[in-house]
Amino acid sequence: MEPLAVTFGRALKIWWSYTWRGFVLMLLVMIPFQIFMFSYFFSHIPKPGQDPAEALRMAGGIMTAWPFLVAALLALQVQAMRWMLNRARWSDFRVALLPRDQ
């Protein structure tokens, strides 16, 4: 099997395959997270005459959720790459993982 040149068009096909898969998977996390943030934000807004420190407590909850969001998005990006490598079909080439020649 002879290697093909990495052209702009082939690189674009790989990039697009990865990007749309990552976007689809990202929606699975971002939509529920946005719903959580919306409900959390509006349930913790200080009422008139209430202690303004309530806003700081709200920020603490948001900052606690942030590392979980980042970890979930990172894991989904790895899954998007696996999905692309296992399932993508291009018209003139394929991507394969081969062991390094020793």
Describe the structure.
With 102 residues, the chain is mainly α. It has a domain at 31-45 and 52-87. The protein has two helices and no strands. The longest helix has 36 residues, at 8-43. The two termini are 18 Å apart. 4% of the residues are buried.
Q: What portion of the residues fall into strands of 2 or more residues?
A: under 5%
Shape: elongated
Query: Percentage of helical residues?
Result: 55-70%
Q: Please give the number of β-strands.
A: 0
User: If you average the pLDDT, what whole number results?
Assistant: 85
Kindly report how far apart the N and C termini lie: 18 Å
The H-and-E topology, N to C, reads as HH
Q: Work out the helix count.
A: 2
Low-confidence stretches: none
Largest sheet: none
Q: What structural class do the secondary elements suggest?
A: mainly alpha
- The Rg value, from CA coordinates, equals 22 Å
Task: Describe this structure in a few short sentences.
This protein has 102 residues and is an all-alpha fold. It has helices at 8-43, 53-87.
Question: What are the key terms here?
Answer:
102 residues, mainly alpha
What is this structure's SSE topology?
Elements lengths: L7 H36 L9 H35 L15
